[in-house]
């Protein structure tokens, strides 16, 4: 079943059009990666698909809804990772989960989510006191309190130490095991290789390559996804 269908997506900011003609689809239950050079429009694509930003052209269906006209309905069914600045320093882990759960019509039991993601011992810890790894764990838990069918994660592991990254990978796999579809923006090809069922590399306003990490490695005529990425994005730096 197709969860996201993007056809000819276009988005401009003033005279700049980072996303000119992006088409891709995401299937239910997969971890779908989006990679590409800085400024290629990865976050813009994710924001348009999650109803957080309006598009200038193209068609979008997400969980059968149009993010433009069915925004409220869509926001009830998806989870999006927050940027760090979205939480006040002084908020406690338990308070943040309870607050986000209150935004949904049919939330998951936030205490169960807290327990499942290993956050119960941190319940009274203030956000500012958490290490990067615990913050990311909280962001994943917050993205899940609405009991979403689809989750968007944007550079979730950037800035994490190697062991926190590995732990986060485990958490993302756990989402797939639960049947949640995951769309993740990443700059790390080892991460894409370890997690993504399929991925798109975007640049120059469009999809430069799309497939499984193995298919992309072959398309780039390379021995590794890392090398293939360079071959496929050559000349596409925004
Ligand atoms: N609100 C905005 N107003 C003006 N320009 C913007 C806005 N948001 C993004 N842009 C510009 O649009 C382009 C695409 O941005 P976007 O954040 O989608 O790219 P990205 O691929 O996610 O980049 P990065 O890898 O650096 O996170 C960039 O050049 C960015 O500066």
UniProtKB/TrEMBL annotation:
CDD domains: ABC_DR_subfamily_A. It comes from Sphaerisporangium melleum. It is found in: Cell membrane. Keywords: Antibiotic resistance, ATP-binding, Cell membrane, Membrane, Nucleotide-binding, Translocase, Transport. PROSITE patterns: ABC_TRANSPORTER_1, ABC_TRANSPORTER_2. It is a peripheral membrane protein. Residues 4-229 form the ABC transporter domain. GO terms for cellular component: plasma membrane. Its main location: membrane. One of its GO terms (biological process) is response to antibiotic. InterPro entries: AAA+_ATPase, ABC_transporter-like_ATP-bd, ABC_transporter-like_CS, ABC_transporter_ATP-binding, P-loop_NTPase. GO terms for molecular function: ATP binding; ATP hydrolysis activity. The lineage of its organism: Bacteria, Bacillati, Actinomycetota, Actinomycetes, Streptosporangiales. This is ABC transporter ATP-binding protein.
């Amino acid at each position: 079943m197709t969860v996201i269908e993007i056809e000819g997506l276009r988005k401009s900011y003033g005279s700049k059009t980072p996303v000119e003609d992006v088409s891709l689809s995401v299937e239910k239950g997969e971890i779908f990666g989006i990679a590409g050079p800085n400024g290629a429009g990865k976050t813009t694509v994710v924001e348009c698909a999650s109803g957080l930003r309006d598009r200038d052209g193209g068609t979008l269906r997400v969980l059968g809804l149009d993010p433009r006209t069915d925004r409220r309905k869509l926001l009830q069914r998806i989870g999006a990772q927050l940027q760090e600045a979205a939480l006040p320093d002084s908020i406690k882990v338990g308070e943040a989960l309870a607050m986000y759960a209150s935004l949904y019509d049919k939330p998951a039991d936030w205490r169960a989510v807290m327990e499942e993601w290993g956050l119960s011992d941190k319940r009274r810890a203030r956000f500012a006191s958490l290490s990067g790894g615990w913050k990311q764990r909280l962001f994943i838990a917050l993205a899940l309190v609405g009991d979403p069918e689809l989750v968007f994660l944007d550079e979730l592991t950037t800035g994490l130490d190697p062991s926190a990254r590995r732990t986060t990978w485990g958490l993302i796999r756990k989402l797939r095991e639960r049947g949640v579809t995951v769309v993740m923006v990443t700059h790390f090809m080892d991460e894409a290789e370890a997690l993504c069922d399929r991925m798109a590399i975007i640049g120059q306003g469009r999809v430069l390559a799309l497939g499984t990490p193995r298919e992309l490695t072959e398309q780039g005529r390379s021995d590794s996804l890392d090398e293939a990425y360079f071959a496929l994005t050559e000349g596409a730096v925004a």
